[in-house]
Amino acid sequence: MITGKNYIGRSLKAGGDKTHKTINPKLNLENPTAFYEATPDEVEEAVNLAWEAFKTYRNMPGSKRAAFLNAIADEILALGDELTTMFTTESGLPEGRAIGERGRTVNQLRSFADLIAEETWRDLTFDPAEPNREPLPKQDLRRTSVPLGPVVVFAASNFPLAFSTAGGDTASALAAGCPVIVKAHAMHSGTSELVASAVIKAAEKTGMPNGVFSNLTGRGRTVGQALVKHPKVKAVGFTGSISGGRTLFNLAAQREEPIPVFAEMGSINPVVITSNALEKRAEEIAQQYAGSITLGAGQFCTNPGLILTVESDLTNSFIETLAEKTTDLDAQCMLHPNIKKGYEEHGTLVASQSGTETVKKIEKVTGANDAASQICKVSGDEFLKNPKLHTEVFGPFSLVVSARDEAQLIEIINGLEGQLTGTIMAEKEDYPTLGPIVEALEYRVGRLVFNGVPTGVEVCPSMQHGGPYPASTDSRFTAVGTSAIKRWVRPVSYQSFPQELLPEALKN
Amino acid sequence: MITGKNYIGRSLKAGGDKTHKTINPKLNLENPTAFYEATPDEVEEAVNLAWEAFKTYRNMPGSKRAAFLNAIADEILALGDELTTMFTTESGLPEGRAIGERGRTVNQLRSFADLIAEETWRDLTFDPAEPNREPLPKQDLRRTSVPLGPVVVFAASNFPLAFSTAGGDTASALAAGCPVIVKAHAMHSGTSELVASAVIKAAEKTGMPNGVFSNLTGRGRTVGQALVKHPKVKAVGFTGSISGGRTLFNLAAQREEPIPVFAEMGSINPVVITSNALEKRAEEIAQQYAGSITLGAGQFCTNPGLILTVESDLTNSFIETLAEKTTDLDAQCMLHPNIKKGYEEHGTLVASQSGTETVKKIEKVTGANDAASQICKVSGDEFLKNPKLHTEVFGPFSLVVSARDEAQLIEIINGLEGQLTGTIMAEKEDYPTLGPIVEALEYRVGRLVFNGVPTGVEVCPSMQHGGPYPASTDSRFTAVGTSAIKRWVRPVSYQSFPQELLPEALKN
């Protein structure tokens, strides 16, 4: 069923000659299908189709767009085992994860469908006229939101379903009334083609215009950069590395008409553990964090990569326990040989810094792409001196810092780059003195977690998934939860408009 | 009372040797005071003070920040005639305008004070825990908004009070909890110093931290660019030219940590007049638009610079009437010799394009800086061919385009850059066929006006003042109305937090 071609709207095309194959990381072998990189003409055609589709799609009633989103969910489920098998084959992730992530993807689509069934998501406001106001009468003014235009979505390496082809960015942009052009991830192009086929089927069944969705593939940056530079593209969603996200942000800012780029990038997700918490439940916390650090082979943007404590006897014994428990768990296969290579390189970089010690690392792993979990430790003094210790090690790795005292711990937080999350593990007796730590984290993160782990990102209205740069390029918006729709719209006011000419949502 | 110095927090400083003077455009002479350009050290000090002030100011209860905003309004009023005289001396605008704009400034401050008295402006959301949910329990999640940090506000040439030192940008940023550093406009540095003295007095009376407000002066771009590049500055508000705004946007995007720039820039504000409207009330419309085109010597960002009609006998006679009425009104003094120079240059540029005809221009004006009102006309064919005809002529100027038919009129709208406003003048019998024009304008503008003029920007929740680039650099936000506060905050989530440690607004 997989063709290796690009969906240019509903047509499968492969006019070029550059191809790539995906890899089965468990076998460390290439999968059979050759995927054709989209040609410049195919990019142009996909964007032009999206622009034409935008003209009708933006005006469809919410109920029709909702039917489209629900149909995508149905068609994804209808792919059955073919999809979960392709997912595990291209990602090395276990089947349970494939099923779980599919469930999340389907739920996201349905929750956006529910959201747009009513027009209130547009943040409607109404200011009635005051014809007798002095010195000047007040005009009737009403405000709604309109979609920006075609959106380019870059699929994420670590979520082949939930943050990729029909993931949160695509679901929220389609919900807002924006056609979507997906740049498939080269590591899971087959999964992307399957999901794209489901989206195209759903579009046909629910009468959507051709071009409302395209799926382009390609290794390297050529296709993605051509999309971001195209004048008819009006916004970009991206989940990935700082270098990739920043490159797209720069390109978008240099356009004649700059466009917003919502790039969700690097984060080491600091966790503060108080001495009281260590005293009361070091073992339990070590267990909980060993699970969080190794979850999905540590390949989550909310993975706890930095644990901050105040030095004491408790700290050292906690670090030992954490290291034991983390390395006791079975090594897991990583997404791709390049991800494994990056994990080793960055882990070695951090571990080799002055004063940094590897407490424990799995010595030998079975699979070629298995990740050897690793816990390192360093003093607060060293950490403060050396920004290389802030490096994100994407995988089952965590660095534990022992600060001299609480003042130094806060200094460390203040010196961090922007982060997606910040966590506090504490006891009730700590509450009166935690204010400064909570406040320091508030400056640097988008979500604060109390007595929990940062992994596990709930899809709900109160979720903020995004933080100060470089956690994301626009900390004012979230990539997860229904508020994510706000990234793709802008407000428009109507002054003194007759009822007949107002958008439906703004009529009396 | 005017010193020519910079307010670095509450201290008046003038450590440099570069000075400039403002100009009385009516007399075409320099005013006496020499204003000292802020030195690099003074810029550094102002930003560092702002950062320190941020730490306490962001946590103050809304009622305290509201008291500060109301006190600023009181202190501005207490400046009395000294302020209105300085305003007219530096701007050439009439006293009535000074009083009106002061009223608007004071009202804006008070409306933001009212807004922040309650915490609902933070877009609070609450998702309760579901401890029994399967397969995983749901954590308690709550979301609020926190201020970004120190904001730099660039004063606007054409609104020495309402969009300047204590104007809408400053009022909304202070309301949000962000300290403000104003880059005073070189054309009205005296007015800025007076208003700054009022802000500083209000800050002292209401117990605000030193550095919550600074006012730096300087001609040219040195001071402003140093501010935008400073790592402790977290956002920028700007009202002015496309070239000035884009320069700041580029600088901000190139920072190691990019920051948002809300630049409200160029707009020619297209107005569509239907044949039915011309048939029924050409004279009335000409009168209304002559008033709008010449209001404030045409020096408004919402000035109607482009009038679109479908060619007919009615069109030609309407253009004659409009030109008569526009040039019949008294010429008015412009803000500055440079503004007058720009007006003449850009007017000549447009009027000299192929196929463009000056219908009427005031032949001789009295004052050196008086603006000669001018109406030009051109065919739709010529307009479509020549992007130079899109040039904003900042002053009492309008270009009337006669399109071949409605299809061409829509093609013209589709070819325009982003605009702040788009207006339709029409009759009831037009309603059934206006849909395509409304829709074409929706793509290009932030505010649609029906049977009115675009000048006059109401301060209310439904106002959208901002549009697709280059009308503004971020069409997702407004510069006018209470929603303007949203430019200066970002969301933060709290997961499973104990009541004692939640921000006040998020407690049960």
UniProtKB/TrEMBL annotation, chains A, B:
Report which superkingdom the organism of origin falls in. Answer: Bacteria
Span of domain Aldehyde dehydrogenase: 18-458
Supply the alphabetized keyword list. Answer: Oxidoreductase
Q: Which InterPro entries match?
A: Ald_DH/histidinol_DH (IPR016161), Ald_DH_C (IPR016163), Ald_DH_N (IPR016162), Aldehyde_DH_dom (IPR015590), Aldehyde_DH_Superfamily (IPR050740), ALDH_KGSADH (IPR044151)
Tell me the protein's name: Aldehyde dehydrogenase (NADP(+))
Provide the species name. Gaetbulibacter aestuarii
The lineage, from the top, is: Bacteria, Pseudomonadati, Bacteroidota, Flavobacteriia, Flavobacteriales
